[in-house]
Structure formats: structure tokens, C-alpha cells
Amino acid sequence: MSTPAVKPRIVVVGGGAGGLELVTRLGNRLGRKGKAEIILIERGRTHFWKPHLHELAAGTMDLDVHELDYLAQSHWHGFRYLYGEMIGLDREAREVLVSPMRDERGTEIVPERRISYDWLVIAVGSKVNDFGTPGVAEHAVVLENSQQADRFHTRLVNAFLRAHAREQPMQPGQLHVAIVGAGATGTELAAELHNATRALVSFGLDRIDPDKHIRLHLIEAAPRILPALPERISVAADRMLRGLDVQIHVNARVAEVLPDGLRLADGTPIPAEFVVWAAGVKGPAFLRECSLQVNALNQILVKPTLQSFDDPQVFAMGDCAAVPWPGHEPRNVPPRAQAAHQQASHLYGSLRRLLAGREPLPWRYRDFGSLVSLGTYTTVGNLMANFSRGDIWLEGTFARWMYLSLYKMHEVALHGFWKTALATLGRTISRQTVPRVKLH
Predict the structure, then answer these.
(1) Which residues make Cβ contacts (< 8 Å) with residue 436, sequence separation at least 6?
(2) What are phi and psi of 89, to 5 degrees?
(3) Bond into 330 cis (ω within 30)
(4) This prediction's pTM
(5) What's the N-to-C CA distance of the chain in angstroms?
(6) What angle in degrees, to the nearest 10, is found between the helix axes of 337-355 and 397-415?
(7) What is the mean pLDDT of the chain?
(8) What range does the domain containing 304 cover?
């Protein structure tokens, strides 16, 4: 009796935007048909699109409505979901080292494991980079995942309830929020919080005067906000935020985060009840121990094919990969959702080529521009970024629709057109029966 052929195994570590899109497509095409075994290793139970974390933190988006269960997605789309966190890599044995997972009481849910692979895609995303600033770990809020964003919103609501019930005058810095880092996340969060806090006060918290008691600070070490984007976008966003009375501090480096605010390098204190750290990203520290070349930000150095320089069986994508950007040297491809989406589509084709015995093709980033959502106030950005021919400048309603279409593209990649359309319709209807800001 002949021995059944062993199916090739493709393991993807990380269920962020790119990783989940990749395993969904591979599962649909290869897993369901028995051509390959597709495995997703992910330390979370649910998926939430990271570019929307600022809306979750502000309470203008409900986690329960927009999160996706990995176990359900794996069942529907022909891949296996393994609950666990990658902590190392044995390249000689072609095995991923996965840590044990425990509940809040310390009871083990799943044991430590070693997962073998034929091809490995590392898509573990990024961590906030605190640049060694004292006090960040102890006193600042970071928004790396949906749980952290949801907890921040709960703390924010509690702070408003506490302020409304106070018997004494407001303390210095009470209901003030200092956001460190004026990239896309920090800038969008400032606008979203301005809208959300006023909506929150409108639900009977009349002892709080938004113009008098609520103060938002946006702090950036560079000479302007949104320093990585074209200056026109930066100027438009700056003008809008200043019009909302957001206090913008540029050329301002944070020296220390304190329990009741922060101190700038020039000695200026900024009192705040909340400090949100959104300044810079880096790859997870364990990547330095995986016998793969990484840069100073713990990002895996990859070839144009997205294969690591050390092992052609190991690919990296998304924020944890340092991908050269031809024509923009020495810059790498920026850590954006559109880059992860493009890489997922490319790796889907490359892995199918490898299964067919062909070599993978190089990937080239196509920059479709940048859009920054300033909550309900406006959206600004550019499309078809090509500096030799000029960009298409967008602002207002059309720009807002283009911004929303990025999320719809992600949903279509995960669910298909009709399921996405029905889910969108259902959310539109249900929004008429709930508050426009989450109240708990």
C-alpha cells in the first residue's frame, strides 16, 4: 500500500491586515482543495483593522461590531488557526517556536509547541517605539491592538463621569489628553477625540464645559505634523486641528512621561490626565533572536521578492519587514495598510508559483497616495502620488469616501463582495438606533 503524499505546509505568523488576507486567499484556493495545508499562528482571538484603532479609542467605532473571530474565519475559508505567540525560529528544523498561552488566572490554555513549515511568512506587525523615553511604559497609553484601544476608551469615559460628579474644582490637567507623535495615528486620534468628547458631554454631562475643561495636545518632534506625508496634507491638517483648538507642539521632544502629564526637552511641562504614545514603530524584539538579519528597528531585511536574505523559505511582510523602496533610497516602503494589502496579494501569487516549482517574482510597491481622516470634520490627502506628473489633491466628502473604501477593500478580501455589502447595510441601519459615541 502506497503512503499518502504529505501536503506542503504554508505557515503565516500574524493575523493583521496583510496576514489574514493572505491566509484567507490561500485557504480558499489551496486549503479547501487539499493542495496545501495553510496555518495561521496568532496570539489574539479576534481581528480588528489597525488603521481604525483611533476610532475605537475615541468610542466612535464599536469593537463588537467590527471585530472578526479568527476561528470562524478559518472554518469558513479553509485554513487552520493556531492560538499562540511566536517566540523563536529553528530554521534548521524548519519549525516555529510558539509560546504556551494562559488565561487571566494563569491556567494553561494551550502548551508550548513547535510548528513545522515548508514555507513561512512572518507578518507579526510592529510595536510602539518609545526611543528609551523614561516613564512611557509606566504612565503612557499605547494603542497597538483593539484591547488596548478599548481599555483606553473605558478609562476616558470613567474620567468624564468622575469629572461630572466632582464636588471640587477641576484639577490641573484633568480631562486633558497629550498625544505624542503627530503621524497619521496621532493626528487622526486628535480629531476623533475632539468630536467624541463633545458627543460624550452631550449625553447629560452638563457640568463639563468642553471649551473650558477639555484640552487636546498633539506633540511632534519634527518641524511639522504628518512629517512623512506631503507638506500640503500636513498644512491642511494643521489648519483644521488648530481651528478646533487642538494645541499643536512641533519641534518638541518629550524628555519624560509623568503620572500627571509629561515634560518636554526644553523643560516645558504639559499636564494631562492621559498621555497617548503614538511616536514611531519597531518590530517585535524576538525577531532579533530568529537568526535572520534585521535592522535597528528589528525589521527583517528582505529581498525584492519579500524573501529573507538568510533563508529563501522564510518571507516577511507588513510592518515587520524592511522592504527597499526603489527610487526613494535609503527609505524603505512605509508601514501602511495599502503596502500590507499589496504584499498579501503578491505573496499569494508567489507561494502558488513555488508550489508549481517556479521562482517567486519581485514585488514593487505602488504608492496610491495618502489619506488622513480628521473625524467628522474632513478628510485630506492625495491620490496617484507621482511627483513627476503631480498629485490629485482631495479634501472633503469625496476624500472621506476614498478613505472608507480602503477598509471596504480589506473587508472584501476577507469576506467577498456580497457579505461585505450586506454587513455594511446592516451597520448603516443599526447606527440609527445607537448613540453616535460609545458610552461605556
Answers:
(1) 60, 199
(2) -145, 130
(3) yes
(4) 0.90
(5) 63
(6) 30
(7) 89
(8) 9-128+282-355
